[in-house]
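Following up on my earlier thread - several people asked me to post the actual chain instead of describing it. Fair enough. Here it is, all 373 residues.
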Amino acid sequence: MSTPLYPLRFREIVRDYRFGNRWIVEAFEKTDLPDAPHHVGETWEVCDRPNGESSEVLDGPLAGQTLHALIDTYGGTLLGSDVVARCGTRFPLLIKFLDASNVLGEQAHHSDALAAEQGLIDPGKTEAWYMLKVRAGATIRVGNKDGVTLDKVHDAILGGTIKELMQEVAVAPGDGFLLYAGTMHYSAGGVLFYEIMQNSDVYIGLRAPDPGLNAEEREAIVRKAMRGVHVEEGFSAKATPIVLGSGANQRTFVFACRYFALERLNLMAPTMVACNGKRFFVLSLIEGACTLVYGERREQLRPGHTVLLPASLGMVTLVPTEPSVFLKAYVPDLVEDVIRPLRLLGVPDEAIVALGGRTVLNDLAILVSSQGT
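Reply from S.P.:
Thanks for posting it. Predicted structure:
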């Protein structure tokens, strides 16, 4: 008989990337992170990659087991019936904290269709950034400026000036950006953010090809990269959040697309999370302190701690011991989890659509239109 599931905390998978520094170590109360001079560029909070990198349970009777092994054992009991119906039993998300103290280079990511066409083992990558901390004057570049064409993209990649074609956006803590597959992006540094994405490692570099290559080789590289770039007039990756509640607790829908949704929970009083068998939830505490209660279990959470709530748990209670802020991630049914409940609360359709940014790629715009009023 399998061990009953419970809220799962995992050991972080740490990436030593040069775009990072020690900001994650300084900002959060994580333990057992590598000492300097390690650049803690990323901590992978929850993941199960095809190459065998899989989050390892930290505590409880399942300690030492990987997320991959748990999915093999529990399947839909852990993932949820709706998630399995949509995604199968391949874990659908990769969630991380990312320190871009330094330059994060020019890039984009494949769509699902392009990744399949090129025979990649991963699907495409739509990702999103939620700004946690920023240095004074920090900006990111995301999406194309108006007036940009694919011909201009071609010339800019070849000439090493592609970031000049991207929109430069000033950022503040709490800003959310949906980077659909194909969205060009770059950061000059000075930002620490929460990142959620499809479980994928596909990458399209947009820097100029090696000048040592001949003209034909350089042209082939640029043409291949261009196939994955999305260009659109009036594009904006910035999502407009919807804030609900005016009492002790506040719930904010930050952004949503077909692959994932993110909410922010500001808690001053206990609240319950219902795990009804349809989907798992991933909670990351970014401010405060909180006790997670499930049956007889008590888990003390501090800033930077992430916990996965298996789909079958039932009711889980969050008891803040000081004012606390969680990010709550999940794979949504956009109609049942986002559109319908927000409409019932009187939120206008244009505000619901704005959770997906301003783009023809916005899943909510299509669904709101097809659902009627």
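Residues 246 and 358 are 28 Å apart (CA to CA). That should answer part of your original question.
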